[in-house]
Amino acid sequence: MTTLTEIAVRMGEIAVSKSPGDLLVSLGLGSCIGLALVDQRRGIAGLAHIMLPEAIGDGGPAGKFADLAVPELVARTVALGTARTSLKAVLVGGAQMFALGGGNSLDIGVRNEAAVRGMLAAERIPVIAAATRGNKGRTVRVWPGGAIMAKEAGGAETELLAGDRR
Amino acid sequence: MSPMPFTTFQLDALRELANIGSGTAGTALSQMLGRSVDISVPNAFVLPLAEAVDAVGAAEEDVTGVVIPLQGELDAVVLLVFPVADAATLCGLLGVEAGTDVGLSALSEIGNILGASYVGAIAAMTGLDLDLTPPQTVTDMLAAIVSTVLASRAAETDTAMILDSELQVEGEACSLGFMLLPAAGEVQEMLKRMGVDA
Predict the structure, then answer these.
(1) Alpha carbon separation from A93 to A11, A38, A139, B16, B101 (Å, rounded)
(2) A16, B40, B115, B131: which could join A46 in a potential S-S bond, CB 3.0 to 4.6 Å?
(3) What is the pTM of this model?
(4) What is the average pLDDT across B98-126?
(5) How far off is chain A from B75, nearest CA to CA, in Å?
């Protein structure tokens, strides 16, 4: 059995892989969204750890903002050899953990999910599974073969998408 | 984007600010429990958002967090973090049952009292007019709590600033983390008020 190489996808980061043995992981998503794009037939997957709906000026890497992260993640998975039309999306996160104010009255988690779904619709990429909303943090694990597991704080890990776990 | 360039002198001033804040909070906790409370040397982290969570602890650890957004002249959030077992110990010391509504409410109240001590000390030192908003208490993964607080203030910066101290109740497995997370740009104002902005 081969050992998995865990690739941490931290706040604002994007990672892609087509190597069996890789595992893309975002630990403890709160209001952030872990957006996975998978092409199960070709064994290509990517994960973005999105923090906010839209970029304001030069506020950080593309992966941080839904409006920049979705096209960037699509481009990077396509660069590994998939076609845009073969990609499917899975969303994890976007919880409302607490109300924080900070300029926006609406909850960030909800706005993050809406922004990501809007961008995916524009790219014509279907969302085939999601573990979003609620008030609990979540961890997501994505295998290049297309399997996706999610775990809620205090809960067990569940399979969001059945696929090859190598 | 590189982290904001603070001088060693400025970071020392921020650590001193956290030290006085957590020292005052530690005294308040000690009076409440009738026990000694040790206070760690604070950390002042200025680092890319991606590295922020790992700097303060284990991402998936279950913790109870008391989140207190501030109002007034400083846009910041005060965050108290109790490992779940330590929160239970603290509830025991207070004579309430952990994991119940009463237990959570006791932790919120502790957060409120300690937060007010911490923020009061910082207000006195900087001359900033600061108020606490009501605390919100959640039990979740550390990363989920810290990243959600950071995301709420992260639109215009890729840099996280975290002042992190630890209080430890002597003779008990009971420690708590004390964090101040100011929004971008707010740190310069704090430094200015302390006379170390140059």
Answers:
(1) 12, 17, 8, 37, 26
(2) A16
(3) 0.93
(4) 93
(5) 8
